[in-house]
Amino acid sequence: MRLRRLKAIAVKEVLQILRDPRSLMIALLMPFMQMILLGYGISLDVKHLPVCVFDREASQNSQALLKRFQASDYFTIVANYQSYRAVTAGLDAGTCRLALVIPPDFTERLSDVGTSSVQALVDATDDNTANIAMGYAEAVVSGFSSDIRLETAAASGSATQTIQPVAVQSRVWFNEDLTSRNFIIPGVVALVMALVGAQLTSLTIAREWERGTMELLVSTPVTPTELMLGKLLPYFGIGLLDAVFCLAFAVFWFEVPFRGTLVTLFLTTSLFLVVVLGIGYLISTAIRSQVGAAQIGLLVTLLPTTLLSGYAFPIDQMPPAVQAVTYLVFARYYVTSLKAVFLKGSGVLDLMEPILAMIVYAGVVAVLAARAFRKRLD
Amino acid sequence: MTAPVDDPIVAESLVKRFGRFTAVDHLSFRIGRGEIVGFLGPNGAGKSTTIRMLCGLLRPTEGRALVAGIDVARNPERVRERIGYMSQKFSLYTDLTVAENLRFFGGIYRVPRTALPERMRFAVEMAGLTGREDTLVSTLAGGWKQRLALGCAILHQPPILFLDEPTSGVDPESRRRFWDLIHTLSAEGITVLVSTHYMEEAEYCNRVALIDRGRLIEMASPSALKQHKLGGDLLVLECDAIGGAMAILHGVTGVRDVAAFGNSIHVLVESAAPALRLLPQYLADHGVTVTRIAPIEPTIEDIFVQMVGSEARAGEAAA
């Protein structure tokens, strides 16, 4: 390998990128747009869920319970119905996702038996949201009931009864606000990097074939390794620039807490870039048209990264067979690393597993890419 | 078969098949140092395929190619350092400037840094692009592009040059200038193999290889070809009905071959004197008026047409 030739290729590539509006768009504009779109577009949080109410008692107690729902950030009462049929219709029409039915004997049973129940109907078309909504609803109701217990106990004068024997004091770590954005944005960064990286390099070899310059390049003494490194080096620079931009966007715009060190971030990001750029290059050597290469590049990066990297859909909730497949999805390692670096402040040693996986991946891709390019026309 | 290593280009029974199509069919030749050899033949004759095999861009199906004494198939990289190549399709980077292209190839061929400015100046001068070093190549006209491509190919001073139809699509004045450059290079001892489908360019070569359908038909100097290969005298004939005249002449005794050349006919006859006397009258009897008939010096195109027969004729009539 000769540094002189490598440098000649890299310089040429930089000049071409600077003069090609399409490359510049992909390199600079695409990450920005994707960060905005994906950053805002995807949220797993349940906020202001529309609720409709059928209050069959309409008492002070029932209204107090409903006020608690209204006061919570998670629910907004949008309708008051007077019949079950109306409640069903409201759920069917999508006017509300949760329906609360308070029985006519709500207060009566509370004072007689000491316990009463409220019916909650949930639209579980989206099971994730439904689960979360049920959880929040239960929390609101249990808050309400413990207050009632306190009141009745105070009224009867037996203060001792109010002490619960065992209470769970849960404390959330790493993502204290429990906002899904904090969990998703680091994944979005990985997704954007995968897309942009593969798009950039999937065109470089195909472009030479299409313009006829490859024939001349093949006739020179340049080696496949020199060609690969010379071509990937400038894109590595651009990739790092994009990474800095995306990560800064995550921290300063979306206000995702960043607890790790820049060293860990740089190391994992660099490794991921090598893998992504290498895969783009590999595609480029196999497919000699720019359009074809761009499409395959999209397919190889977008699908597995969105579905199987765990950036939004947790891997440990997937069926075992699918989980096994995710080990092949290179983005999973970066997603894991980024989330840990951002939210947990994990260091290089904590992330040994994904880092080693990426090193192996990068090595395999680099060897394949260097070998895939045959210096011949047939 | 051991070849003396001093011949820079040696082809030993080269064959290239693409599927069932044989593009190059047992081609053998040797080219000596400082020679300019022209590959002549219609499009699709196998000229480019042969050149690409010699440059190591295509692997021969059979046979062997030795360039600078090195087996191309075994050691393509060592060959590539010693050759300059211009492909059929213009293949410099059009989104780079003249100087950027030269600097790129200077780096790829590892031209010593101290020598590079001088070499670049020479190449720019040769291409007639002095003062336009910072022009984007995409804005250059055809002739300049071709000369710049040659400049890039010789930047590392290779002893052997492969030029694949370097002058196609370039205006006649630029083509003439281009050949002047090739002669200058050859005078310095550079061996040049150049392919063309412009028959008249054969005259600029030391030797010509006539290629048709993958086979080498003849390889000799232009003058030797003209003297020995025609087997008769050549006449040019102008008349009022070319198509009709050709049909009539085909059956006449003493007429060996008839070919259309623009708005005249070239007639190959056994002997010039009786033909000059008899043909105008014969054609007049068949209703064709001859406006001019005269003996002419045969061109390479005449030879080629004569040798490959009527099939190639249709394709070459335009050239």
Give an overview of the whole structure:
By secondary structure, chain A is mainly α. Chain A contains 15 helices and four strands. A four-stranded mixed beta sheet of chain A has the order 2-1-3-4, sandwiched between helices. The model of chain A has no long low-confidence stretch (mean pLDDT 86). Chain B has 319 residues and is of the alpha/beta class. Chain B has eleven helices and 14 strands. In chain B, the strands form three sheets. Chain B has a six-stranded mixed beta sheet with strand order 6-7-8-3-9-10, with helices on both faces.
The gist of it:
In chain A, 66% of the residues lie in helices and 6% in strands. Chain A is mainly alpha-helical.
Bulk shape of chain A = elongated
**Average pLDDT figure of chain A:** 86
| Largest protein-protein interface | A-B, 29 and 31 residues
Per the principal axes of the C-alpha atoms, what is the gross shape of chain B? elongated
Give the DSSP E fraction of chain A (strand runs of 2 or more residues).
5-15%
**Sheet bearing the most strands of chain B, described?**
6 strands, mixed
Structural category of chain A: mainly alpha
In helices, the fraction of residues of chain B equals 25-40%
**Strand order across the biggest sheet of chain A?**
2-1-3-4
Total number of beta strands of chain A: 4
In which order are the strands of the major sheet of chain B placed?
Answer: 6-7-8-3-9-10
Q: Counting H and I runs of at least 4 residues, what is the number of helices of chain A? A: 15
- The first-to-last residue Cα distance of chain B is 39 Å
Nearest-angstrom radius of gyration of chain B? Answer: 22 Å
Name the average pLDDT of chain B. Answer: 88
Sketch the topology of chain A as an H/E string, one letter per element. HHEHEHEHEHHHHHHHHHH
Query: Could you describe the largest sheet of chain A, including whether it forms a barrel?
Result: 4 strands, mixed
The percent of residues in helical segments of chain A reads 55-70%
